[in-house]
Amino acid sequence: MGGSELLQFVISGLKNGSIYALVSLGFTIVYASTGVINFAQGEFYMLGGMFSVWAFATFGLPLWLAAIVGILLTAATGILFELLAIRPRKDGDQLSLIIITIGGSLLLSSLARHLFGPDELAIPAFTSGPSVRVFGAAIERQTLWIWGLTITAVVILNWVYNKTKLGRALRACAINRDAARLVGVDTRLIVTVSFALAAALGGLAGLSVAPLTQTAFDAGARVGVKGFAAAILGGLGNPIAAVAGGLMLGLIESMSIAYLSSTYKDAISLLVLLLVLFVRPQGLFSRSRREKV
Amino acid sequence: MRRGVLKFAPLAIGSLVVACMPLLVDDRYLLKVLSFVAINVVIVTGLALLFGYAGQISLGHAAFYGIGAYASGYATTTLGLPWIVGLIAAILLSALGGVLLALPSLRLKGHYLAMATLGFGEIMRIAFVEAQPITGGPDGLGSIPYPSIGSFEMSAPVGTYLLAWGAAGLTLLLATNIVRQRPGRAMRALHGSELGAMACGIDIVGLKVRVFTVSAVLAGVAGSLYAHLVGFVSPSTFSLHFSVILIAMAVLGGSGSLAGPFVATALLTLLPFADAIIPGLSRDALALIQDWEADVYGLIIILVMLFAPGGVAGMLRRRRRGAGVRP
Fold first, then answer.
1. Prior bond to B157 cis, omega within 30?
2. Which ipTM score applies to this complex?
3. What is the pTM of this model?
4. N or C: lower Cβ tally within 10 Å for chain A?
5. Which residues of chain B does A281 touch, with a Cβ-Cβ cutoff of 8 Å?
6. Are the C-beta atoms of B44 and B265 separated by less than 8 Å?
7. Between chains, do A103 and B112 touch, taking CB under 8 Å as contact?
């Protein structure tokens, strides 16, 4: 395989990897504030694409506005889901919350089918024009958008986490919820905020990739599993590791296409997921913790 | 003594009604739908042991169902072996799958276990699509014969109906025996606290492997029954969607019970076939129910977890207590 061909695969891997990184950040943020994995995270990815298509095609909004509407509506869905389905379960029992998010995933995807129909939908690329050529490899303009938006989202998130009062509260909750409540953090609000953030990130991922791969009501679960694989590859609860895990998974996938076959792309990322779960469930970048009574 | 007899009266009458159903009604469609109920009872009873008693979640049960269906289908069509060999193949292969998944899953719990089983299920689904020489790929595997022993064929609807309900009855008997005895108590202890159960001297590893395997085998048996009843299997049946529907049945049924999941399975299985039990149901109403089926399953999972964590079993328990029957 030539150098430019290999580069092409790396580019495609980093493109998908950015998407996985955004979805996996959503997993990480909700996990940090609630201690559970949100199985409906993939549905936020699906909704981001669907809401944008809807705002663009049905209401004729300009593309940039449709994208913002898509993110806001997805975030609103995340808030609604938390208020209606997560918050009423006051004891925060983990197994129950996991099952609730599994039900939520099924409910959100089938509601999306009723709202947007069963067909595959797409929006045009954010900027039109030919691909950019770098060392013999072609980069689609939308890929540049995906990278730019992912970097922007990570930078903003980093700023919120490290420089704002909200970020301090989010970090405090991640370390110890009870202790955070004792020093006056409104932990219930923090859970709602984390769902909004996770939904917005998932929505951003879904709408930025919607021009390249069409989106449909059942697109969420597949990407959700990959986002989780990315989160677990890095180690749950660590945002930087989540991004690294996402990019790594994207590269692994595209290398498996380059050297094996595209048939097994999905199976490869599932195998990575199982391998990490069975061998190093704490992730590549974290130390293990033992359970105490 | 009299109370003992009374206790078994509903069970005996229920079994009698189920067994005599083919004599009472002459409706192919209804008998087929009721056979689906029996098949789902087999698989959900297995899930109730794993999830409701031992507290271990599985989002991969559709895969064991598929393993059973394909094993049975491949053995009886391509290999031309008798039905009973197909059934044994289904049992052995799903048991193997159960052990394979159980061993690494011993280290995992909660969402890790949920994701691992989900990943296993999806990998198996991809395998069902890609292993064309065995599974027929996306087109599926067709013309699977009815179950038969020698020249005696159990054809649809009556033969398969009786076979499916016989299997469901045996499954319930087996499960009742498991939960009433030592393993049942050990499973409940495991559900309560893993470390606590270990401290009580329960062999957690052996228990988990056994309950995973029993649960997988029951799913495999159900898959085999399904393959021979429908005569055709394709990968889309064994999706994550089906695993989640099974979770909905187990959750609605409630934990620590076999009767609850039985009732819930019957209710949720009959939902998309409502026209079989409600004779006057219009076609539009049925289409509406089927269109909103998935939404209903999702909503049921959420509502039960929020407002009635005991599910049907909890309601049954409360009624019994309300009636003042105390031992």
1. yes
2. 0.89
3. 0.91
4. C
5. 107-108, 112
6. yes
7. no
